């Protein structure tokens, strides 16, 4: 069994959760915050049998779109001067981690 942890944009999360659930893939949704943008995003946990791993990754890829965000000038760290110009970053589609599950039980 594998544990998939996917960080996705909030805007993609309802559709993705619905599609995973429709396909009988168990999913837990956590509210999270990106360290760089300090904006809300969504982290999904999915425990899946190895045979279904590619299927789940394809669903994530189909639904999660990369989007550009322009961020206003901000200090790199407290006390530092502002970056002099806005920065454009591309967020997503999704940041996905796949981990081996040593043991899985529902008690
Ligand atoms: P954030 O940390 O808010 O990052 C949002 C986007 O900002 C990133 O998109 C990337 O395009 C850009 N970015 C991040 N760090 C940067 C830096 N030091 N310099 C310049 N640009 C930077 P994604 O790469 O698609 O990441 C989306 C979200 O996925 C991240 O939100 C974070 O919550 C998560 N994430 C990404 N890589 C991760 C990792 N290695 N471990 C844990 N979470 C990760």
From TrEMBL:
PANTHER family: CYCLIC DI-AMP RECEPTOR A
Transmembrane segments: none
Name of the protein this chain belongs to: Cyclic di-AMP receptor A
Species annotation: Fervidicola ferrireducens
